[in-house]
Design brief:
- The longest helix is centred in the middle third of the chain and has 12 residues.
- This protein is about 35% helix and about 20% strand.
- About 15% of the residues are buried.
- The chain is globular, with a radius of gyration of 15 Å.
- By secondary structure, the protein is of the alpha/beta class.
């Protein structure tokens, strides 16, 4: 697959995905959106979000990418936004914005140049983009 071939070409893989809050198991309830992270054993940097607690799991393509990176000795981290909606929404997207301010995401931050009025820019993107479930295609 082209995706797996491209994973070998990059130094580190960062996966951003979302999941419904009902899939998150916690001892104490928390309000959504919540950001949680996992990493391969080859990822050296500290996670930028709270660690995804057991017995929670990640599934689908994000899990497949992480497994591929682990098996092939590639550093990778996944950040999951647990949200109240089944569809991609602005609060979910904004939960990832804090990651862009870190050195780990510096490459993307320089290219994205987030506007001061992030809410209006995100609303414009959502209106003008094709969204399907928890994916955003730009």
């Amino acid at each position: 697959m082209a995706l797996y071939a491209s994973l070998h070409a990059v130094g580190e893989t960062l996966v951003l995905c979302s999941s419904h809050i009902s899939e998150l198991k916690l001892d104490e309830p928390e309000e959504a959106p919540l950001l949680r992270g996992l990493s391969t054993s080859y990822h050296q940097a500290a996670l930028l979000a709270s660690h995804l607690e057991q017995p929670n799991i990640v599934s689908g393509m994000p899990a497949a990418v992480m497994q591929h990176c682990q098996v092939h000795g590639k550093p990778a981290a996944i950040y999951v936004c647990f949200t109240e909606t089944m569809y991609l929404d602005i609060p979910s997207i904004k939960s990832f914005a804090c990651l862009l301010e870190t050195s780990e995401f510096e490459y993307f931050s320089e290219r994205l140049k987030l506007p001061k009025d992030l809410d209006s820019k995100l609303q414009e993107i959502m209106r003008n983009s094709k969204t399907e479930l928890d994916n955003l295609y730009l």
